[in-house]
Specification:
The chain has 151 residues and is mainly beta. The chain has one helix and eight strands. A hairpin with a 2-residue loop joins strand 6 and strand 7. The chain starts with a helix and ends with a strand.
């Protein structure tokens, strides 16, 4: 029984590490469904070769008055009228080939108006792990997104 569990765990670790060795710089591109299924984010490559993301779908795109949701919590008053839909809220990510992750990025949380440092890695080709943090990645939170395929 214990031997079977160890064998299964070892196989899982080997499969995970074999996938990580195959991660390529543009594997992050595409549409991703957020952890709570509240939004779809399009990750794209910018002109400077870095990666960014914008909200392309919201489960609830309208506020209580029936108007498109806006960035009301933004610390800059001049940005509070911009809509959440199509908002580029993350960017600056660079692929680190050695670590097989995208790092040096930032992510803006429109629900709080806060901006955090961030990094991303893929646990498999359809599962993205996004870690937002202050200062060090130790002091942060990770959220899991799943790849969204168009039908």
């Amino acid at each position: 029984m214990v031997l079977n569990k160890i064998t299964i765990l070892l196989c899982f670790v080997l499969i995970t590490f074999s996938f990580l060795g195959q991660v390529k710089t543009d594997d992050i591109l595409g549409k991703w469904l957020t952890e709570k299924n509240e939004a779809v984010v399009q990750i794209f490559k910018t002109n400077d070769g870095k990666y960014a993301g914008k909200i392309i779908w919201l489960k609830e795109p309208l506020d209580e008055k029936g108007n498109p949701k806006t960035d009301t919590k933004n610390p800059k008053p001049e940005l509070r009228n911009r809509t959440i839909l199509n908002l580029v809220f993350m960017g600056g990510f660079e692929f680190n080939n050695k670590e097989k992750e995208w790092e040096n990025g930032i992510i803006y949380d429109a629900e709080t108006g806060n901006t955090y440092k961030a990094r991303i890695y893929l646990s498999d080709k359809n599962t993205l792990q996004l870690r937002g943090y202050i200062g060090s990645p130790i002091f942060g939170r990770t959220t899991t997104w799943t790849r969204k395929y168009d039908k």
